[in-house]
Write a structure and sequence with these properties.
By secondary structure, the chain is of the alpha/beta class. Helix content is about 40%, strand content about 20%. The chain folds into two domains: about 130 residues, TIM Barrel (Alpha-Beta Barrel); about 100 residues, TIM Barrel, CATH 3.20.20.190. The protein has a nine-stranded mixed sheet with strand order 7-2-1-8-9-10-11-12-13. A two-stranded antiparallel sheet has the order 3-4. Strands 5-6 form a two-stranded antiparallel sheet. β5 and β6 form a beta hairpin. α1 packs parallel to α3, α5 runs parallel beside α7 and α9 crosses α10. The protein is globular.
Length: about 230
């Protein structure tokens, strides 16, 4: 299996029947949408401050930076029936409409996750039928105590945020996907994505839950095998 978040891994997941593939999305200074998790390239600077000519094909953890269009081409090649939905994890604000439109124009389903209330609202305005889920579980490193407390409150008790921004559901780190949140979402018919679950025991636990819509993992083939095993019981 190829390293996660690489074109090889995406190709394999699509070819083996993954129903949903998540990709992290950023934008270069000259407007090119790129698939990469971290905001900074070592020795170069922030991706949103660099042109594509300097960003393209640079090595990052597990692989290289590549264009979003290339990712979509690979997906179409390995899943021509368009069975696989694209899960866009937007890392920044400002390119929501373009990112979603790039998937829809290929006649493929799409959903969006982001930790930004502003991005959720932007997706809901430009593409009201596209699911837009608020991400819970941001990195607290580098924050002072006051900011940590503020973030903790906004993520453990996100209910007013969800209503204000118009999110259609939540993408929660498994630590935050507790019974209160699950019950609140279920009662309102809203979606819940739980991320990122890689351990076999944890995958079995989360894949059994009727109140979880999607479980994301860096081990899609293992997850597919476990789900098949559970369905056979």
């Amino acid at each position: 299996m190829a390293p996660f978040a690489t074109l090889g891994a995406f190709s394999s997941a699509a070819a083996h029947g993954a129903e949903l593939i998540e990709v992290d999305l950023r934008r270069t200074a000259d407007g090119v949408l790129v698939c990469v998790h971290d905001p900074v390239l070592a020795g170069l600077g922030r991706i949103d401050g660099l042109p594509w000519a300097e960003v393209g094909d640079r090595e990052v953890v597990g692989g290289r930076v590549f264009e979003f269009a290339t990712f979509l081409d690979v997906l179409d090649e390995n899943d021509p029936e368009r069975r696989c939905e694209v899960h866009l994890d937007l890392k920044e604000v400002g390119y929501e409409e373009a990112a979603v439109a790039a998937v829809l124009v290929r006649s493929r389903r799409v959903r969006v996750t982001t930790s930004s209330d502003e991005s959720i609202a932007a997706v809901r305005r430009s593409h009201p039928t596209v699911p837009a889920l608020l991400t819970l579980g941001r990195d607290w490193r580098g924050l002072d105590t006051a900011d940590r407390v503020k973030m903790w409150s906004a993520e453990v008790f996100p209910f007013s945020r969800i209503k204000r921004c118009g999110a259609t559901g939540v993408a929660a780190h498994y630590v935050l996907a507790g019974p209160v949140l699950r019950r609140w979402l279920t009662r309102r018919g809203m979606d819940l994505i739980v991320w990122t679950v890689d351990d076999d025991k944890a995958l079995r636990r989360w894949l059994r839950r009727a109140d979880v819509d999607v479980v994301t993992t860096n081990r899609p083939l293992a997850a597919l095998a476990i789900r098949k095993e559970l369905a056979a019981r």
